[in-house]
Specification:
Helices cover 74% and strands 0% of the residues. By secondary structure, the protein is mainly alpha-helical. The chain has a domain at 22-175: LemA-like domain (de novo design (two linked rop proteins)), CATH 1.20.1440.20. It is rod-shaped, with a radius of gyration of 39 Å.
Amino acid sequence: MEILLILGVIVVGVVIFAISVYNSLIVLKNKVDEGWADIDTQLKRRWDLIPNMVETVKGYAKHEAGVFEEVTKARSQAMQATTPEQHAQAENMLTGALKSLFAVAENYPELKANQNFLDLQATLREIEEHIQMSRRYYNGTVKDFNTKLEIFPNNIVAGMLGFKKREFFEIADEERQNVKVSFSEEPKAEAKPAEKPAEKAPEKKEEQGEQSEASGESEANEAESKKD
């Protein structure tokens, strides 16, 4: 009887532990899914913006067909990606293509001053910043989730319940900076103020002092001569 009671307590403890691990993994999994959904939203905003940018640049640089085709192809591949790893590779290619597009725009002052193009640049800059913030949040939740899976004895329960490690959304080191979308002129160096000439010591006061001393000595000599 006591053995059955001990076994019952053990079984109940294992069940409670398994439920606890399951619930904690579900919470982390939902955070991972939430983080990826945010990244996906920002990536879609980026994809929707690119055709407008290409058409705007085309209006000033129609002969740059190779660059436009490269951007369009990279955008298409990014939209077809399914896993975080595939998305990361495709987005790196798209970022490189966008850099080529902006390099073309650098050669057209009228395009750089176009208000529509400036607005598109500002929107792209905002999207890039949101992608970076979302990526940091997502990768942080993935790290917590994967760590929870690897810890013993969580890994046993997680394996039995079908949980698997999630992929990070990584970008290449050279692509960690946002796409440069600013064509503002470099600030000019400020002119240094001219140095003031050193003030000369007042010479008049010194001359007056010397004259007063000389007059005092002459008066003393006259007084001595009278006494003699």
